[in-house]
């Protein structure tokens, strides 16, 4: 939480415009004053909460309650980076299981690791999705936009299930490849596409 702006006098149109410029919008607090009906209407249309009260501790309590409802913000420390080269279906006992074949560019990936999936920054997706992908790239830029957060449900090297894969080059100079599946917190598998960028992340809370 931080203070974006403070001033004396009644809540005005500029206060609402400034608060609505953030995502999510900021909250406008007014101590010992009231907002006009015109300002209340503008705030409602902009999705900005305006809280006025003549008792200062009630304003503080309101701010604290909003912080608790919102929960802590998080920041990511990137522990590894991969790109999906292709997807393939397993055979034999695991027939029907679709795995994303990935090239590891840095760091490491482990079973249970938290991941963020980016799409639209130059990845593939098949001929049927070519126009959609080109449009996504124009909008998202070279890094793509986050489309999924979850965990590594399973990890393989060739046909072997492994607990961890590190970024290291073999004697031929090729980067390490692995197969993996991702799932959300509810255990629902996520369908990766060729070109998706996967970041292995460690989340840390900050208020």
What report would you give on this structure?
- It contains four helices and eleven strands.
- It has 207 residues and is α+β, with helices and mostly antiparallel strands.
- It has two domains: 13-70, no CATH class; 74-206, Beta Barrel (Elongation Factor Tu (Ef-tu), domain 3), CATH 2.40.30.10.
- It has a six-stranded antiparallel β-barrel with strand order 3-4-9-6-5-11. Strands 1-2 form a two-stranded parallel ribbon.
- A hairpin with a 5-residue loop joins strand 9 and strand 10.
- Helix 1 (13-20) packs parallel to helix 2 (37-46).
- Residues 123-141 have low confidence and may be disordered.
**Quick one: CATH superfamily of the largest domain?**
Translation factors
Distance between the termini: 6 Å
Secondary structure category: alpha+beta
Q: What is the name of the CATH class of the largest domain? A: Mainly Beta
The gross shape turns out to be elongated
Give the CATH topology of the largest domain. Answer: Elongation Factor Tu (Ef-tu), domain 3
Note the main sheet: 6 strands, antiparallel, barrel
The count of helical stretches stands at 4
Succession of helices and strands? HEHEHEEEHEEEEEE
- CATH architecture descriptor of the largest domain: Beta Barrel
Helix content: 10-25%
The low-confidence runs, each spanning 5 or more residues with pLDDT under 50, are 123-141
């Amino acid at each position: 939480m931080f203070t974006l702006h403070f001033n004396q006098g009644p809540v005005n149109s500029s206060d609402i415009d400034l608060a609505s410029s953030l995502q999510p919008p900021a909250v406008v607090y007014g101590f010992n004053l009231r907002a006009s009906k015109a300002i209340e209407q503008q705030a409602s249309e902009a999705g900005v909460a305006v809280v006025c009260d003549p008792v200062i501790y009630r304003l503080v309590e309101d701010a604290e309650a909003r912080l608790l409802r919102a929960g802590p913000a998080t920041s990511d420390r990137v522990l590894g980076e991969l790109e999906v080269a292709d997807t393939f279906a397993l055979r034999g006992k695991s027939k029907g299981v679709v795995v994303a074949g990935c090239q590891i560019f840095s760091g490491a990936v482990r079973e249970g690791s938290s991941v963020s999936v980016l799409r639209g920054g130059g990845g593939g997706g098949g001929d049927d999705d070519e126009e959609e992908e080109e449009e996504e790239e124009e909008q998202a830029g070279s890094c793509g936009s986050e489309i999924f957060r979850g965990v590594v449900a399973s990890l393989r090297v060739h046909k072997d299930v492994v607990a961890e894969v590190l970024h290291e080059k073999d004697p031929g100079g090729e980067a390490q490849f692995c197969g993996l599946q991702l799932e959300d917190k509810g255990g629902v598998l996520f369908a990766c596409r060729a070109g998706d960028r996967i970041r292995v992340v460690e989340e840390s809370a900050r208020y």
